[in-house]
Specification:
This is Outer membrane protein beta-barrel domain-containing protein. Residues 1-19 form the signal peptide. Keywords: Signal. By secondary structure, this protein is mainly beta. It has one domain (21-189): Porin (Beta Barrel), CATH 2.40.160. It is 9% helix and 75% strand. The protein has 1 helix and 9 strands; from the N terminus they run H-E-E-E-E-E-E-E-E-E. It has one helix spanning 2-19, and strands at residues 22-34, 39-51, 56-74, 77-94, 96-98, 101-127, 130-157, 162-173, 178-189. The chain has an 8-stranded antiparallel barrel with strand order 1-2-3-4-6-7-8-9. Strand 5 (96-98) and strand 6 (101-127) form a beta hairpin. The chain is elongated. The protein starts with a helix and ends with a strand.
Length: 193
C-alpha cells in the first residue's frame, strides 16, 4: 500500500518543483584568450538560465569570439594567428545564496564552429645570429570542435528582475583548443522582450 502511494507522491513533488522554475535571460561581454594565453580578443555571450528549484538549474549559452595575434621570430619574420568562432554551451548549476549574492558553478558540454589559423611548424636557419632562412607551415581551416565548459558565476541582485554578474569560464575542445573567458553579465528575470 505504501509503495502505491509513494510513486504518485514523488510525481506530484517533481511537478511542483518544476512549477517553481524561473527563467532568466542573459547577455554578457568580456575578454577571451586562446592558444597559449597569448591571443586576446572580445567575446559576446547570449543565453538563458533556468532555475529548477532553490539549489539547481541549467543554462544554454551562445557565444562568439574573435582573437588574433602575431608571433615574432626575427625582424621581418612574423606569423599572424587567428581564432574566430561561435559556440553553443549547456551547463548544469548548483546555487549558493548569500544575501543579495549568488554563487554558482556550471559544468557541461560545448560545441564550437571555428576558423583557426595557426602555425603548425617552423624552420629557422641562422648564420652569425642573422636569420638567413625561414620556412613555416601555417594551417588555415574551418573546424567543428567538441568539448566541455567549466564556469563560475557570481551574481549580485540589483532589483527583483535584474542582476549583475561576473563570469569566468574555461572551454576545452578535442582539437586541443582552449578558451578562457572573463567578463560581466546582465541577467533579467523573464525574457528581454
Amino acid at each position: 500500500m505504501k509503495t502505491k502511494l509513494l510513486l504518485p507522491l514523488l510525481l506530484l513533488l517533481a511537478q511542483l518543483s518544476f512549477a517553481q522554475t524561473t527563467t532568466r535571460s542573459v547577455v554578457g561581454f568580456g575578454t577571451v584568450v586562446t592558444g597559449n594565453g597569448d591571443l586576446p580578443g572580445p567575446m559576446l555571450l547570449l543565453g538563458t538560465q533556468r532555475k529548477l528549484g532553490k539549489r539547481i538549474g541549467y543554462e544554454i549559452m551562445a557565444s562568439g569570439s574573435s582573437t588574433q595575434g602575431t608571433r615574432f621570430f626575427a625582424p621581418g619574420y612574423t606569423i599572424e594567428e587567428k581564432s574566430k568562432g561561435m559556440s553553443l554551451d549547456g551547463g548544469f548549476h548548483l546555487y549558493l545564496h548569500l544575501g543579495r549574492l549568488t554563487f554558482y558553478p556550471a559544468i557541461g558540454p560545448s560545441i564550437r564552429f571555428a576558423r583557426e589559423r595557426y602555425m603548425k611548424s617552423a624552420s629557422i636557419r641562422q648564420v652569425n645570429g642573422q636569420v638567413v632562412e625561414f620556412e613555416s607551415e601555417v594551417v588555415d581551416e574551418h573546424q567543428v570542435q567538441l568539448g566541455g565548459m567549466l564556469a563560475l558565476n557570481i551574481d549580485a541582485r540589483l532589483t527583483d528582475k535584474y542582476s549583475l554578474g561576473l563570469r569566468g569560464s574555461v572551454h576545452t575542445y578535442h582539437t586541443g583548443q582552449r578558451l578562457a573567458f572573463v567578463g560581466f553579465t546582465l541577467k533579467k528575470t523573464g525574457w528581454w522582450f
